[in-house]
Design goal:
This protein is mostly helical. 81% of the residues lie in helices and 0% in strands. The chain has helices spanning 2-21, 27-41, 46-67, 73-104, 109-120, 124-134, 138-166, 174-183, 187-201, 206-219, 222-241, 252-255, 259-276, 281-310, 314-319, 322-346.
């Protein structure tokens, strides 16, 4: 595993400093682009695969957990509740579009389901959780993940500039943070977009905190959706087999995003520190520690972005066909428009 992790680290270090020098682009976006370029010249990626997978998933999850330090649990709960109507709207639009367009494009139902779920909830994690439930094969999973990653990279590249064009407030990270948390597919690109916005307008980690909290609230939707899909799949199998003995492939333990619980625990620790530790040297120590952990988290995000870039093969994606790409684009566009409309209606933007 060490080779993939070291390669991600080697890209992350210069990306971190380049992001400081060019905040309009930001470290995460630079890491994605460098990864995408380098992967084109890697003839044999097999020695790096295990480490890249670890970095893009586990290191990213750890970075999200560390973001919990320094965040008040009351603010986390308020943000989750504030964004819930937008989250429900974007998820509904994406799933409905995926269903209708799969019929219009005459696409295989499993690929359409994976693209729809991946677009609406949490990208690759949602696809990985849904695939065994609907019994999708490896090729279908690979196609869906490639489509989602493509639009993740696009979002990380263009959404900060798009946010400026739309006129999101630059005095705080609230509006753009909610937009990134609801309109971007995967946690990786959510953190990349939000970090870039923070760097652009010197907001510390305000946008990142908001976006990650919204995204984690959205990620929890994976549970009810996979439950419904498991119910539908089991009924279909029973009908085809003519038997009531068919068992569901749903497993809560396998699909539950446990890292969210650790994020909440980190927020709880922070809340208790600010509540019970009196002003003075002890509180200053905790504030410094929380600030250090936030910086570590930001660097780990850049490492994860490097791994994401190294895993993104644009040439291979184009060869998979236009239908999954077009479906992904329609879902992505529908989610983006719905998020903006809902923010206008609720007065956030």
């Amino acid at each position: 595993m060490i080779f993939g992790v070291l390669l991600s680290l080697c890209i992350a270090v210069p990306s971190w400093f380049l992001g400081k020098a060019f905040p309009v682009i930001g470290g995460p976006v630079i890491a994605i682009l460098l990864g995408m370029i380098i992967t084109l010249f890697l003839k044999n990626k097999a020695p790096f695969d295990k480490g890249l997978k670890f970095t893009s998933k586990k290191v990213l999850q750890w970075s999200v957990i560390l973001l919990g330090f320094g965040m008040n649990l009351g603010v986390v709960a308020k943000t989750g509740a504030q964004s819930l109507p937008i989250i429900l709207s974007t998820i509904s639009v994406s799933l409905i579009l995926a269903f209708l367009l799969s019929k219009a494009f005459n696409m295989p139902g499993k690929i359409a389901t994976l693209v729809g779920v991946g677009s609406s909830i949490c990208g690759g994690s949602a696809i990985a959780a849904t695939a065994p439930v609907i019994q999708a094969d490896d090729e279908e999973v690979a196609q869906a993940i490639s489509v989602i990653f493509f639009f993740n990279v696009l979002a990380a590249l263009i959404f900060p500039s798009f946010g400026r064009f739309l006129g999101f407030t630059t005095d705080s990270g609230e509006a753009f943070g909610i937009f990134a948390g609801t309109a971007v597919n995967d946690t990786s690109s959510v953190t990349a977009c939000a970090s870039t916005w923070d760097n652009l307008f010197n907001l510390g980690s305000e946008t990142l905190d908001k976006a990650v909290t919204v995204k984690l609230t959205r990620t929890l939707a994976i549970i009810p959706i996979t439950l419904v899909l498991a119910f539908i799949q089991t009924r279909k199998q029973k009908k085809e087999a003519g038997s009531e003995d068919v068992k569901s492939t749903f497993s809560l333990k396998k699909i539950f995003p446990f890292f969210i619980l650790y994020f909440v625990l980190a927020s709880l620790i922070t809340t208790m520190v600010y509540q019970f530790v009196p002003a003075g040297d002890a509180l200053d120590f905790f504030k410094s520690a929380f600030s250090f952990l936030k910086n570590v988290s930001k660097f780990m995000i850049i490492m994860a972005m490097a791994a994401i870039g190294l895993n993104t093969n644009v040439i291979k994606l184009v060869k998979t066909g236009w239908k999954p790409l077009l479906l992904g684009f329609c879902c992505w566009t529908g989610i983006t428009v719905t998020s903006l409309v809902m923010q206008k209606l609720t007065g956030i933007w």
